[in-house]
Amino acid sequence: MDPSTIRKIMLSVYPLRCCPYCGARLVGTKNGRCEACGSEISEQLMRDLVRVYIERQIYGGRVDTGIVKETIHAVDLGEVSQRVYEIIGHIERKLFARYRDDIRVAREKKDAEKLREIYNEIRRLKDEIFKKLQELQYLQVTAVMSKRLEDLDKAYRALEKFRQELAQYIDPEVLGMYVIPEFPLIVAERLYEAMEYEKATRWYGLALTARLFPGSQPKRDLPSYVAAGYIPLGAIFLDAFDMDYDGIDEVIFVPSREIGGLTIPCSIINESGVVWSGYEKYDIVLPKYGRFGGFQMLLFAWESAKMLDAKILDSDGREVRVELDGDTLYALPLYLVKAYPMGHGEYEILAAGTRGRVFILRGAENRLVAKSFVVGNVVDLTVASMDRGNRIIVLTVDGRLVEIDPESYDVGAIVRDIPNAESATISTGDIDGDGYDEIFVSTVEGVIRVVSVNGEYRHAKIYHEESICSVINDVDGDGENELLIIGIDGESLSIHINKMREFIGMKTFECVRSYAVRFNRRIGRARITMDKPFYSRPIFLSVDADGDGSKEIFVGLDRFLVSLDFRYGGD
Amino acid sequence: MCYKETKPRYEKKDFIAPPQDPDVVVYYREIGKKDVKCFKVAEYEDAFVVCPKGEIRPVEAPGFYEVVAAPAKVIWIRSARFIVTVGVPMGCLPGGFGIHADLALYLRSPETIIRNLISVGKEGKIMVSDIRDELRRILENAVRNLQIDPKTERKKVVELIHREMNNLIVRSWLGGFYCDVQSVGFSFECDLSKLVEELAG
After folding, report:
1. Disulfide: which of A181, A497, B38, B172 matches A211 by Cβ 3.0-4.6 Å?
2. Checking DSSP bridges between strand B38-41 and strand B63-67, what pairing results, if any?
3. Which of the residue ranges A236-250, A277-291, A482-496 would you say has the lowest mean pLDDT?
4. pLDDT band at A89, cuts 50/70/90?
């Protein structure tokens, strides 16, 4: 049992306590105070109470709780109580939403008895949810520790029952906080072995969600460790957007198509791997949110993974017209689609198609206006903010790094002969603090850094081992970006945090800490091939997927997706 | 009607909504001629719009709306947060016991709340802690006024506190609410107080 498991147990045990000073069921505490009477409750007292509670009343007898005593002191109690407070607020909101109309009717009729009945029901459901969550967790801990099939079966059925009966009152990410990640992972592995890929992906998604939640906030120091989750499917698209307005971006994952019969068009992997029902009629879908002229969202939909022709739909499901060189089209042959804000409040779509064509799609009132260029088959593309304005940066399969001016459409070469470009990734960000982005190309032979100096590009190799991707993040919360280089070696990934430091009057990189994450299988880098463009491709995404203020990294490998979550302090 | 339903927006700067902070229970915002006109009502929020002529219109359903006659004032109320437990710790009350009450606050007169709020400026909010503090003060006064004896039949205690709290609430700034006391408990009923004694021993 590690600190993160103890933390999850504390989340479920915490609301079941009562305040020794006023007797209120402590459904929440804030800043170390009872939410009901405001009495100060010392951390040590609460730690002891929770420990005794776990040992005597919940886990005593069947599960070894000696480890609880050892690890409970490493858990940040203030953070746990804050989480509980947020969870209770979240559940209350969901319950209220469920009874909203009944409350409105009773209020209009001034029916106090009915209102009392509804509010009592809300209170009862809230208590029941917490009790069930606690029971559910107990079954999972027992199953993971005993590894007996009967215990696994019992926990599986209980979780499915909970999902059916009470999941409407609790979002997947909140449920994820109470799930012990090892449990859904065991279930997912068995489903995968049984070739139940859709179900397996859902359970892998739940394991990933359970690994991410509750999050871990940066404490102005480097992370203490990296928690990893995985799904044994490659990725063709990874994207994120806060679609349900809860303040946390949803991570959209479109799995690669090496496995025959896989029919997941796209799944939300930080929300237990849910697949939206409206998308099921397509083989592959990729939603893009933002302001695209008259459109608030665009949906790229492929009816068959065997064909590249993508329809573009608006939020009402209507096909969107595309104007290209005087022609009107209703589908474009695309395999890579990204959206970027281009500095004037509007988003633009950058896409790669067949025969080395790159498209820029701009939103108009009721259509998209496209411009296309032939630059070569594309591996990756992104946008960089340069001293001359925004530039579209494209990496081609034949190893050329190219820039496109989005206003004049001028195309220019930046670097040539990048080795093994079909498995490389590009990232952009400002790490030297000059206000402009640098470009990082991660390849089999290392990481190449490209900077623009007075309008001229210069490049140098800054890392000499194999690298999957480079990410520019403020990982320690000190207000300055760090460069994170993700390396790969056999069964493990390595994460190297590099800071930019002064050295004899120059700025240079220094690796300040490295972490390793080992998997129980061989992993390899993905490569894009034009004859099978929907197979695993080199791809990554850096996004705060759990709302903790620190960005997680999702890396697409060969038939394998990894999530890397930085953990801080006692978390 | 000074507002109408509109299509969803996904960019945060394209619509107005209350802060995500779970502590905010009432949020008020004036939408002027130069402001973004679209506002969002979540499924767990009640909202009211005060139109330019002063009439107050409740928003019937969650969704996205657009103000068509500015300036309008929008008030969001997160009624879900009005199912609360407040307590008075032992030590604050004579008799050596602490007390807590499970309450539900009903919006009796939204107009009262709204009129109080919109006089404060372009933007305003009430935090859940403000409401709790006031309810705690009212509960303490109610228990003191009634000289509650924990041995009294529980149903009677609930009834007495319910009546007294509603007498007191109308004289407080929570006057727009009706308070329904659903249950009452005492500190000595908490099992953990025994554990506290045990740990101390």
Report:
1. A181
2. antiparallel
3. A277-291
4. confident
B92 and B153 both lie in a single domain: yes
The answer on B186 and B96 residing in a single domain is yes
- The pair of structure tokens assigned to A222 is 């480097």
Which of B22, B56, B78 is a domain's end point?
A: B78
- From the centroid of its chain, how far is CA A440? 22
Show the tokens assigned to B71: 């300036």
Q: Locate the chain A residue with the closest alpha carbon to B11.
A: A290
**Rounded CA gap, A225 and A229, in Å?**
13
How many structural domains is chain B composed of? 2
- List the single residue in A20, A25, A38 with the smallest CB-CB distance to B196: A20
ipTM for the assembly = 0.82
Strand duo A367-374 + A378-386: pairing: unpaired
d(Cα A250, Cα A256) in Å, to the nearest integer?
19
Task: Give pLDDT, residue B188.
Answer: 87
Interface test with A, best of B6, B9, B10 (most A CBs within 10 A): B10
- What CA–CA distances, in Å, run from A5 to A9, A49, A75, A510, B109? 6, 18, 10, 34, 47
- Residue B154 belongs to domain spanning: 82-110+121-196
Do A100 and B195 make contact, defined as CB atoms within 8 angstroms? no
Residue A29: what pLDDT?
Answer: 65
Cβ contact A116–B104 (<8 Å): yes
**pLDDT tens string A148-172:** 899 999 999 999 999 899 888 888 8
Question: Do both B58 and B86 map to the same domain?
Answer: no
Average confidence (pLDDT) over A25-48: 74
Q: Across the A/B interface, how many CB contacts are shorter than 8 Å?
A: 158
What CATH code is carried by the domain that includes residue B93? Answer: 3.30.479
- Which tens digit of pLDDT belongs to each residue from B186-198? 988 886 656 655 6
Look at residue B115 and tell me if it is in a domain.
no
Residue B32 lies in a domain: yes
Tallying the residues shown for chain B, one arrives at 201
* Residue that is written with structure tokens 């960005």 in the block: A551
Quickly count: other Cβ atoms within 10 Å of residue B38's Cβ. 19
Considering the domain architecture, whether residues B105 and B11 belong to the same structural domain is answered as no
Contacts of A287 by beta carbon, 8 Å cutoff, 6+ apart? A239, A241, A243, A252, A266, A297, A298, A299, A300
Omega of the bond leading into A214 within 30 degrees of 0 (cis): yes
B201 domain-assigned:
no
In a domain, B116, yes or no: no
**Rounded CA gap, A454 and A437, in Å?**
13
Mention every residue, 6+ apart, whose C-beta is less than 8 A from residue A364. A293, A294, A323
Please check whether residues B132 and B160 belong to one and the same domain: yes
CA distance A127 to chain B (A): 13
pTM for this one?
Answer: 0.87
CB-count burial class (<10 Å; 0-12, 13-18, 19+) for A398 = middle
**Listed range (A331-345, A387-401, A437-451, A481-495) with the worst mean pLDDT:** A331-345
- Write out the H or E segment, with its range, that includes residue B66: strand B63-67
The reply to whether B25 and B92 lie within a common domain is no
Question: Is the same domain home to B86 and B176?
Answer: yes
- Cβ-nearest to B8 among A30, A103, A315: A315
Which of B20, B55, B78 is the last residue in one of the domains? B78
Residue B96 and residue B56 share a domain: no
A117 contact residues in B (CB cutoff 8 A): none
Nearest chain B Cα distance for residue A213, angstroms: 18
The answer to whether residue B185 neighbours chain A at the CB level (below 8 Å) is yes
